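Researcher: I'd like a structural prediction for the single chain below. Treat it as a standalone chain; there are no partners to consider.
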Amino acid sequence: MPFPQVRCRECENRLLPVFALTTALLDMSIVNVAMPAIQAGLGATASGAQWVVDGYTLCLSVFMLTGGSLGDRFGRK
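Model: Treating it as a single chain, here is the predicted structure.
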């Protein structure tokens, strides 16, 4: 006898932030691994490369917070 499939709204609400955080951490890890190639491509110093990473992190954060706020305001009701 198969088990009935239960959709737990609470479970979905708990898993979404975990997925978003994991995606952000994976994204920043990829940028850090690619940093030597980015640094060589831009001809930047170590401090210049750090500015690139900081700018990327700042933009990612701003758009993630804005997207979350817009999703709360205009999302599924």
